[in-house]
Amino acid sequence: MSIAKNLILAASLFGTALLSHAGVIDTFTPATKVTVTKTKFFEFEYTVPTKNFDYLTQSLEDVKLTIFLTDENKGDETLKFIIGGTEFAQVYRDDRNNAVNNGKDNITPVDIDLTTALGQLNTYGKLSVFLSTDSAGDYNFTGSSLSATVVDKPQRERAVPEPATLGLMGLGLAALAVRRRRQS
């Protein structure tokens, strides 16, 4: 193959590789122990790094939030998470009694596929997470991770005027030409 063909092939393969890639966007670990009770909630926020993500040309898909919990007190907790702001709020509930595995070192991962809250990420580049419980039991929040697939947005096609619009414009120009001719 010629050098030009090799360059074109390499460029097309490189371009295809950039179309989408999956991975962990960010992780969050609290600085101190966080216990969530009926009267004590916890809130944190993710910010999508702009270093590897361009909001104008890319979007996030298949976003998963994983929250890691423990239960030292062997309580009867239920889980309620509100993910995303008011405009894009997505509620996750687990009303099972004792939703978190008991034991200090027994970590329970809770995987949440983001659907509604994905709008907040793609629009503002941020994701707020609010952890609470509606029961008398409590649980400890030990950390979380946010993973997604970054996909290039398709380029918008140029709008083509409809035939009726072109016809009206042509009639207007013809009327102007006739009027000018009559005035001369």
TrEMBL record:
Using the record's annotation, list all stretches that form the Ice-binding protein C-terminal domain.
Answer: 159-181
From the UniProt annotation, give the residues forming the signal peptide: 1-22
Keywords attached to this entry: Signal
Q: Which Pfam families match?
A: PEP-CTERM
Protein name (Swiss-Prot/TrEMBL): PEP-CTERM sorting domain-containing protein
Taxonomic lineage of this organism?
Bacteria, Pseudomonadati, Pseudomonadota, Betaproteobacteria, Burkholderiales
